[in-house]
Each structure stands twice: as structure tokens, then as C-alpha cells.
Amino acid sequence: MNSPSKDIRVGLLLAIGLTLVFYWDLWTLVSTPMSGPLQDPAVSHWTFVPGIKTVQYEVFHHFNLLWSNLRGLGMPILVNDVQAAPLYPLTALLIWLPGEYFWNVFVLARWIVFASGAFLLASRCFRFNLVGSSIFVLTFVFALFHARWINHPFLNGMAAGVWYLYFTLTTLDTSRYKRALRNRIGLLWGLTVSTYSLITCGFPEAAITIALATVLIVPFALFHSMRSHKRFPALALMTIVLGNLLGFAIGIPQILALV
To answer: How many other C-beta atoms can be found within 10 angstroms of the C-beta atom of residue 29?
Structure first.
């Protein structure tokens, strides 16, 4: 198995290369991901574009992410504009970009995060070789079903989800990480950020999809860990639980807004 740094470099190069092939028009700003033959333009221009404009206005004019007075008597942003994913990490990082550039950069960055995470999941957790991992990225990440959702926050949850599964399964692989505290801390941070990203992705159905995948995959990884090392991976499970709890704690504003 390659070193993590090498797999990360290969995953990033593969992700960037595939987006250049499939979405060269987004890289060159020739077109926008918010409309196209696969997308429903009404969804973009009635939901996501107004939602991001509302978030940008409130953040930069009122330093506020909770309430907007732009509609009616005012509405809570985290409820009314939940699908704009105002607390999602990529949204927070790129919200300063003008609207005509935001969507291109956001969608390309999300594809790269999604594809590189899927490559690491395939190569380091599923133990696929380079060809198998590349095919997994090509057929899963860039599937037609996902291409249809390019203008939708469903892919926010899927991009966060592959990283959540990667950090969860890597934490359970105690043979490689039991000896270094800094690796445990890194995995804990990864679990925290990916859990938070799932909570704030803007589309709860995507988070439920990843939760279902976790329920189906993790028990087998836990059984394999116990069988291989002849002991219960208590420290690994504590790390996973703590990472999930921290992610939920940080994302509590979004949770409370929806309940």
C-alpha cells in the first residue's frame, strides 16, 4: 500500500484531471453549472441562486447568518435558505466570491473534494489498486446520476460523506494508527469536520444516504478489525464517537433550526 501522502497527491491529480475533461467549460467560465441539458433551471434560479445572494447580503451587510429581513416580515436563513447550505465549509470559504464566479468555483471545488475523497476511500479502505480506484472514482463520483445534481446540495452531502466513511474506516484500522497520537488527533479532526459537513450540507436526504451506507459498511470493518487483532477496538470506537459528538455540537445551530 502506498503512503497516505502519495495517495492524496494521486487522488488530487485524478480529480483535477477528470474535472478538466468533463467540465472544461466551468474552468474557463464559458458556462455556468446552474443551467444545462441535465439540470432543472427553475431549481437553480428559484432556490439556490436567491439563497446564496441572501446569505451574501446578510453576511457582508449585517454580519448575520441567522435572520433575513429581505422576504416578508423576515425569515430564518438556516430554515428558509437551508438548501443554500450557509454553514457548509465550502460555502463559508467561498462566500466572498461574486455570484457569477461563486457557482463555478464552488462546484469545481466540490467535485475535487468528492473525487479525491472517493479515491482515498477506494485505495486505502477498500484496498483497490490504482486502476480499480480510478474506475471507482469515474463510475461512482462522475456517474450520470451525480452529474444531474451538479446544481443541487445533494452533492454537498455526498462529498462530505466519502470523507466521513474514509475517516471512520481508517480509524477502525488500528494496525496502522495505534502507535501515533498525532494520527489519532488528525483522524478525530477529520471525523469532526466531515460530521459537521454532513449536518450542514443543505440536503438532509444526502446525510441519511451516508448514514445508511455507514450502517451497512462499518459493522463489517469492525468485525474484520476484531478478527484480525483478536481484541475489541475500544480506542478506535471512542475516537469515532467523540468525532461525531464534536461535529454534532459544532453543527447544533443548523440542527436546532430544523427541529
So the answer is: 11
Helices 204-229 and 181-199, axial angle in degrees (round to 10): 150
Q: What is the pLDDT of residues 7-39, one digit of tens each?
A: 999 999 999 999 999 999 999 988 888 777 666
pLDDT over 70 (residue 73): no
Cell 463510475 belongs to residue: 139
Higher pLDDT, 5 or 208: 208
Strand segments, DSSP code E, in the chain are 67-68, 75-76
Residues whose CB is less than 8 angstroms from the CB of residue 149 and which lie 6 or more positions away in sequence, other chains included: 155
State how far the Cα of 108 lies from the Cα of 159, in Å rounded to an integer.
12
Say whether pTM exceeds 0.85.
yes
Buried b (16+ CB within 10 A) or exposed e, 215-237: eebbeebbeebeeeeeeebeebe
Say how far residue 117 (Cα) sits from the centre of its chain: 9
Q: In a 3-state reduction of DSSP, which class is residue 32?
A: coil
